[in-house]
């Protein structure tokens, strides 16, 4: 049995990870800013200070952990309203992560699993799936902050002896998903026409259950030591295929208009939304062969399994969109 601290334990991925850890018999403490929302059986530790300031001095003497999985952070948003987005991301994703790592190390933790993002490498692949050793080219403040956090944590691990493991997921989906994935389901469920009928670009995704399983392995498997791993479902649907599959599982066939990608790019330039359009029409595939080789990890759920579970949750929680179902 391992003693695992999960920051952001009451979040979308955090709850799934805590369930997975407890299912394997591990003792889990959730480090959260606000009380409530953690899975049943998780010991909750509430620290409301921003960016984990003062965490070291607040660490309870009774809290002993072997491993920390750091999920908490400032997440990527499409329209950031911060006056200086990069500074805001750095304060939480770089400085905050370092504070947790330093406090955990001083309290006896031996491994720190940092959940980064494929955005630390970039927004598109180079004509093949992105590998862990590809040169990083982050394109926005969020991606840059995640890369800087990786680098700072690795340096801290080298000087302190803390075993730092980096995990880079692409877009995460599953029951409880928010942001763009939820907006896509809303549009499909409402029968809105979408200009996604002729997009060949392939995008890696990871179902939250697959990510939780991989994080469990990275937290507890000795072979993961000092590793950097990409995690995904292992099957990269095109944007068109994804929309059609969601429509099938939502029992609301997607209304897809076959608009050429060149026209979509032109519309993006005219409207100032080129980054959003590129996320639809550009390939972003993730190579997961390293975690398969080193840890023997295989995604326990297929893409279809994940989409079915996500659509089932959506249908049960968004009944207003299915009045004629």
Automatic annotation (TrEMBL):
Pfam families: Epimerase. CDD domains: UDP_G4E_4_SDR_e. Residues 4-226 form the NAD-dependent epimerase/dehydratase domain. InterPro entries: Epimerase_deHydtase (IPR001509), Lipid_A_modif_metabolic_enz (IPR050177), NAD(P)-bd_dom_sf (IPR036291). This is UDP-glucose 4-epimerase family protein. It comes from Paraburkholderia denitrificans.
